[in-house]
Structure prediction request, 1158 residues.
Amino acid sequence: MPKSFLAPNALVGVFLLLFTLAIAIAGPWLAPYNPQAFDALNRLQGPSMTHLLGTDQFGRDLLSRILNGAPTTVLFGVFATLLGVSIGAVIGVVAGVAGGWVDNAIMRILDGLLAVPELLFTLLIVTVLGGGMGQAMLAVAVAFAPGMARISRSAVLSVRTRDYVRAAVARGESGIYIVVREVLPNALGPIIVESTIRVSFAIMIGATLGFLGLGAQPPSTEWGLMVAEARQFMFRNPWCVAIPGMFIAMSALGFNLFGDALRDSLDPRRSH
Amino acid sequence: MSATHVNSHPAREKAVVFNATAPRLSIRNYSLAYATSNGPVKALNNINLEIAPGETHGLVGESGSGKSSMAWSIMRYLPSNAIEKHGAIRLAGQELLEMSPRQMIDIRGQRISMVFQDPSTSLNPTMRIGEQISEVLMAHRGLTKAEARAEAEAALARTGITRPKEMLDRYPHEASGGEKQRVVIATAFACEPELIIFDEPTTALDILTARQILDLFNRLREETHVSALYISHDLGLVSRIADKVSVLHHGDLVEHGPVNEVFNNPQDSYTKRLISAVPHPDRWLGVAKPETSAPLLSLDKVSVRYSPLTFKEKVLKAKPDEDQIFWGAKDVSLSVRPGELLGIVGESGSGKSTIAKALTGLNDFTGAVKFGDISVKGRKEISRDYRRKVQIVFQHPDASLNPRQTIGTILSRPLHLYDVVPAAEIKNRVRELLELVRLPAEYADRLPHQLSGGEKQRVAIARAFAAEPELVICDEVTAALDVSVQASVTELLVNLQKDTGTACIFITHDLNLIRQIAHRIAVMQHGRLVDLFDREDAQAEDRNPYTRALLDAVPVQVSLGVYETEQNDE
Amino acid sequence: MTIGYLFRRLLSILLVLVIVTFAVFAITAVLPGNAAIMILGEYATPDAVAALEKQLHLDLPWYMQYLSWVSGVIHGDFGMSLRLSLPVSDVVGEAFVNSAVLAGTALVLVTIIAIPLGAIAAVSRGKVMDLLLAVFSYMGSALPEFVTATLLLVVFAAPKTGVFPAGGFTAPWVSIPDFLAHVVLPAVTLGLVLMAHISRQVRSEMSEVLSSDFIRAARLKGLNEKRVIWRHALPNSLAPAVAVISLDIGYLLGGIIVVEEIFAWPGLGRLLIYALENRDLPVIQAVTLLLATVYALSNFLSDVIIAILDPRVRYA
Prediction:
């Protein structure tokens, strides 16, 4: 394990990330109660031995709902990012490798798209596609693509002028060999780092869409939606807004810290 | 406010009066280590060094020798993980190790000052030059803003800057490299310090500029009688300017004494090796002169244009406006004979690397290149056959090997690409190639970062020779290496040339080095070929004045000997 | 920096905005639902719908619709709101002012807090202050606005014990204390992520500068630490800080959408959500274009500020 992963913030990041991924994969099977089971007598309870994190406005067990909602919330971020990164990386690599007018045209269009704030862009696309998780995921992916394209392009450009790429060009290697074997493996680092950090944004945007009623729909246990549904009761039981909020923050933090640790481990200036 | 005024400064007088007979700087049994996660790493070991008033002391060493640590120790500017085991560093008898940080602030810039390697990074980019000089005068001599400015102007004038007043109001990026280094020197001399530490002050500069800075150093030294610690990796240079010299090797001071003694009669084996490695124009290392004069490669009016085509030229086909165009190289005509080594020399920006890039299809060009029976008139016409025959080696070995490929993969690539050997024999050939450049066979499984700089450059050379080329272009291949490594890489290259009969274009800024190995030397300036001569004619009366100036800038005054030493690099 | 450079920069902003109009138009053109039916209700006669479509130019091909919309925009005419029966420019104009007040307050808050915070952390690298800032900035950047807002409401705006109102708006020119009471929670929510991000960026820029050769040179000239930091290091970290802030303005403009919705702040964000819910195309188009313009212009402004701060850019 590289030394940079032993820094305290990296350790916290790795721990949070593993925890988040664990509940995102196994959460629904770990839930002690049926996340949708009403219990009229135990509404808006604080944490107790029977309900470790308390209950919501219908007496549903918060822990079970959190665990059940983990895949929806976290995997949403992961897949939306993967999709956005794939679209963006392809565009960016094409622009960076092609150069000339192709690069110019792509960059101008990207500039235009990047001038629209990400959340606004996402909202516009969600409105076009209609509410729902799939649509929201696609919207986040499309909104991420221009930013990722720009980062991929600059990663490719910075590698393209390295001497080992020049050596390959001078040798008469084919364009495909140069891109696949010489440029991409070395440009991948910054793209992976940025993607990891982006997952945290995607999780937050996904939850925000759920909160605004444009993403996950009831009776989903998506964490943003949970906050929205419990808002009316937040003064009677702050736990039912605070807990899903904290889980969102925690998973975002995990990806964030891990991404930073990854960046440090790739940065030659900090590796020794 | 004049220069003489400075001498009456009270703090200075006090310092001199304090102990007039003691050496300016004396270092006694000084040891330094750095704490790392793998335990302490020793940087300096039991160093003893003395600098008398007015003496220039050369401190010579290769990278990692501890010569920079020496400077930081004297300046008391050590990182927090530094461990000073024992010893003393005294300035005019005063113990610096016992000084408080507060006291050191008063000593730095006033009693000891420093000139750094790269003037473009050691000046604050967002502050006018005038303020950067006068802030020192205000901090240490309590001058007012106006007085400091006047004094700064005078200081600049002493360094030979023609319009000092204008220079005061410029930002660093508006000055040339030489001007910036003069500013740094003016700042260092501003408070008339007792000791100045020069840390490779000419390494980042061009040949002619470096020469001017050295002349300036010599003049100021005579005018001020300052003591100087001159740190350098360049033995030839130190031999010209220092009174005494100390040689550092892995933190040990292996030899010291008067310059002439150390250079003419070195005692330590490392010093001997170092001296042997210094390029000397009269010591021929190259291969025998080719017999045929029929060219292998010939360039006819090759030009490389860096400014893009303007709208007018592209669309309206208008005649280009010659004054507006920036040429990387213009109308370069020369030839290389089979088995010959042609040197191309020039300062940075002279177009010497541009020619290398044009010849290897990295830059588009106009004009004609004839290689054997292949004739090309632009980048697009370059065929794979040509590329196989003409190989290139780059300056920075760190950058020219893909960090994610093993040495084996890197070396097998040209074999595979040009079908040099059948696929089944590639592994064997990689081993032979490693042997050819004197590297162990197991290096095939290593990644570039596990190799030293010199080893990486050997791999890059092996990759070029893997293609069994007829011409290898070496673009400053020794510039990024230490002196001793440089010598062994040069020797390797010459041996390979001997064994394979490959012709070579060797691009460099080092005139002494090129005169050891090149049969003919081409001189470039501002993108044009200004001179081309046989090695023997280097000192001829009718040499081009620019060539003359370049040669004069790097004389070898002390005749450096060759000592029988074990050749092992790294 | 020359006038020519500024001019080229303005031209490129114009180009960006043209592309934005295309993108906005393309997205809104494929929005489901017929605007004419929306206005007239589902029981309108086909004739009436056709007449209104003609009036709204919906019968024209898309590029004609685009051109007529763009020519309207150039003349300051964004059409009529489909739902509010008011000129879009009136509706948007008022909301824009309200949003600007909120975003401006948040931005001032962020700038005066985040830059010194980052600088202090860089100077005290590895010490307690640095650690505290790291914790703050990581937490801040992991909390989405709706969570921050909700938590702030729970703590500071509970029905009886609350210090601040839970929502609403009073213009500063009506009553400054009232305005301040209303603006605190939304501005803090909006600013938290940015403060976290900007202070961290300033810290890393500043640490980079502090480890550069010229800072070492300044120290070795015998300057005191105060001068090294305030006169040498800080001015060199400001230009990158401005660049970071200008990029973050995009994030701020996204953030106001959520924050205004939660705190019932009558600005562009709230208007946009309303328009999206009601498919009020002209309003959506106008708000999007406006936000993009503000973002592009703020980037331009930051270029100018950077040029003033950094002489290398100024003369390049």
